[in-house]
Amino acid sequence: MEKRSIHKKLFTLAASLLLCCLMLELGVRLTLGDRIVLYPRFHARAEYGPYTIRRLRPNARFRHTSRDGSWNFVINSRGFRATREYPYAKPAGCLRVICVGDSHTQGFECRQDMTYSAVIERYLNRHCGTTEVVNAGVSGFSTAEALVFVENEAFRYHPDVIVLGFFANDLDDNIRADLFRMEGGALVPHRFEYIPAVGILDVLDGCPPLRWLGQHSYLYSHLFNTAWNWKKTRHLKNAEHAMEEEYAVKQEDTNAGIALYKQNLARALVERLYAVCRSNNMALVILDIPQLGDGDHSFQSSIPADLRTSFEMHSDVLIASDAVLRDYDGIADLFVPHGQRHISEITHMLLGVAAAKAIERQIIVSRPNGTATADPTGRIQRTR
Q1: Domain coordinates of the chain in residue numbers?
Q2: Nearest-CA neighbor of 154 among 100, 104, 105, 101?
Q3: What is the dihedral of CA 7, 13, 17, 22, to 10 degrees?
Q4: Separation of alpha carbons 190 and 194, rounded Å
Q5: Fewer beta carbons under 10 A from the terminal one: N or C of the chain?
Q6: Cβ proximity of 311 and 280 under 8 Å
Q7: 296 with 302: CB under 8 angstroms?
Q8: Which residue intervals of the chain are DSSP H helices?
Q9: CA dist., res. 328 & res. 128, Å (int)
């Protein structure tokens, strides 16, 4: 009798907790439903040379949902958003492009076949022959992580072109990652591991009920994203504070000193990335991912004016968002209306076509063995 009473109490407690959670879920959906997104992160650790950084969880399938729609993600065995595999050996006569960047490149709030990577592939397959475009975007990726990936892994795929999707928050993310620092005006490696929350995500993604909640529960998503953003903001503040002390960036205006350091770091990272591309006979295309402007339909460049010239000098092509999108400013839905306001599929298409045309100008025609030669300027030049 006593055991039955205990079981009854446990059942009542469990039922009460479930009812409470359901009520909270309903309350969140009614009050915050338009603003909350179900965007679970599926990250895993990756070993690239001496570095341990993150990639998308290999062989994962998951879904993102918000007021604006639902998007499916298919990840291959190498952690790329793709439905097929890419061996290191490049097929003969194939033009291969690898796109690196953050959630905009990965394609948050965008269908898998509508990302700018997919657009580039379709355009080049139609105009330049057999082409493979690898979407190696990872949400949260910094320029520093992109450099590590290209320098230690991407080159093994023998790409002809690297497309770097540069977004405004890369300036902060480079500081968070802290993989490289500026010392005496030079870029130097600082740490060799950056896998934020991957240990936690391993647990959450490995538990089917929690994995289900991440894709279906607004309450769970709200709590998780609140904790994630708090941790992310705290990490940045701590990194900036350490930078003030270690690099004496304190000036009359501390914020100006930090901003200058961030720009110098981004400049140095891009310079090194360009050098890596040149030494491996790869062209570098920098794609300026626009950021939301003052209005819902307006935008502004992600590249600070002080970095524009340097980025132009240290790339084969810089595709500025204002050059591509100016005719659509204030007119088209360049960003998803709600959710996290990532670039829309319209913007993916416009940027993808612009990037593909730039690659087409750089790559004249594929040689029989599928390799490329560099002209004296270091730009990839296909010969007929």
Answers
A1: 33-381
A2: 100
A3: 70
A4: 11
A5: N
A6: no
A7: no
A8: 2-32, 103-106, 116-127, 143-152, 170-177, 198-206, 208-216, 218-247, 254-279, 305-313, 321-325, 345-362
A9: 28
The fold of the 33-381 domain, in CATH, is Rossmann fold (3.40.50)
pLDDT in tens, the chain (384 residues): 565 666 565 666 666 666 676 676 666 666 666 667 888 889 999 999 999 999 999 999 999 999 899 999 999 999 999 999 999 999 999 999 999 999 999 999 999 999 999 999 999 999 999 999 999 999 999 999 999 999 999 999 999 999 999 999 999 999 999 999 999 999 999 999 999 988 877 777 777 776 777 777 776 666 666 766 666 666 656 665 665 555 554 444 466 788 899 999 999 999 999 999 999 999 999 999 999 988 777 899 999 999 999 999 999 999 999 999 999 998 999 999 988 999 999 999 999 999 999 999 876 443 333 334 333 333 344 332
> Do residues 121 and 133 make contact, with C-beta atoms less than 8 angstroms apart?
yes
Backbone phi, psi, residue 313, to 5°:
-70, -30
Distance in angstroms (rounded) separating the CA atoms of residues 8 and 16: 12
| Distance, CA of 89 to CA of 110 (rounded, Å) | 29
User: Which residues, in sequence order, are CB contacts of 361 under 8 Å at separation 6+?
Assistant: 317
The single residue listed with the structure tokens 């003969």 is: 92
Distance, in Å, from the CA atom of 195 to the CA atom of 46, rounded to the nearest integer, reads: 9
- Residue labelled with tokens 């959450």: 204
Q: Within 13 Å, how many C-alpha atoms sit on residue 206's CB side?
A: 7
Q: Compute φ and ψ for 162, nearest 5 degrees.
A: -110, 130
Tokens of 177: 């990652």
